[in-house]
Amino acid sequence: MTSPDHEPPTPPGYPTPTGPGYSGGPGYQDTPGYTAAPGPPAAPGYPTAPGYPTAPGYGTAPGYGPPGGYRPPAAQPGIIPLRPLGLGEILDGAFRAIRANPRVMFGLTALVVTITVAIQTVVQWYIGGLLAGPAQDLTAQVDPTGELELADTLAPLLAQLFTLPAISLATTVLTGLLIVAVSRSVLGQTVTIGEVWRTYRGRVGLVVLFTILVALATSVILGAFVAVIVLVGTNDAEILAVVIALVGSLLIVVASFWLLVRTLLIPAAIMLEGAGFGSAIVRGWKLTRGSYWRLLGIYLLTSVIVNIVSAIITVPATAIATFITQGETTSFGYLVILGVSNIVALTLTTVFTAAVIALLYIDVRMRREGLDVELARAAGEPRA
Length: 384
Fold this sequence. Notes:
- There is one protein chain.
- The protein has helices at residues 87-100, 102-138, 150-186, 193-233, 238-262, 266-273, 277-287, 292-325, 332-369, 371-379.
- By secondary structure, the protein is mainly alpha-helical.
- 66% of the residues lie in helices and 0% in strands.
- It has a domain at 87-206 and 288-379.
- It is built from 10 helices and no strands.
- Residues 87-361 form the DUF7847 domain.
């Protein structure tokens, strides 16, 4: 082992080692141009990474909060929400009105319809017997052998014409009274039959008067139309008479639908607003302005529904009556069976139709006049 004092000489071309006990050999200098490698700089700390700001705390996240356009549910003290109604809500409200006050809606209607149909059945049976002979004479040339049974069909039809005014009058009175019951059900209130009659019987008279005036005006127009056709046809102008009949019939159908809708809300205006007769007619007429197609569509749909219900009840009853009486359509038994089915059908259809008309009136006023605010105030509930 050698000591540092006897270290072998460094090979030529190699730097002299340094360290304790080593000394640079003679003639060896530090290589020019070489300096010590700089060490890594001291970490100045941990700065915040660029792009990541310090969280400012826990606040409301942007974009969260009440949804735009949100409104709380409308007040509903009764059968419908106090806001403009959709088709489904009107039809559903009609059923709810029946359930809310069945004593008035069904009880009163069934009572009036039963009395009316009973009178109709007796009158129809009596008049049908009186007209059997004249009907036979009228159809003798067309059906001399009686195989077509025209006389048996004509006599009941003529007898029924005499009883139609009674049915129309009864349904008109009921419609007026039921409109009042439905309007109270909207506020969650019920009325008795006696209260409705005592309070609104005067208004019912105005509804009946209006219905009679409309019927008279319609009869005059139809009578004039038929007279013109007959007059033209008797002057050797059959083709012109046919043209007038076709075009006139089309115009009458269009005018009938138009008049039906424009007068649809007049009974409700008469019953509920307490105005005079003329003012109520003008009022009901104006309420339908701008809502013609909507009112027409809902009323036609209601008519389809009630006609289907009526057919479901009366068609089987007619078949049963025909089978039992062997086709004797003027017999008392036939008329009784038919009368019972008519009582059930008329009760159901009158109640439902009146409820729909009342709700249409309320809906139109909520849309145009803000009636929902007044109703909510009357019911003691805050308006949404």
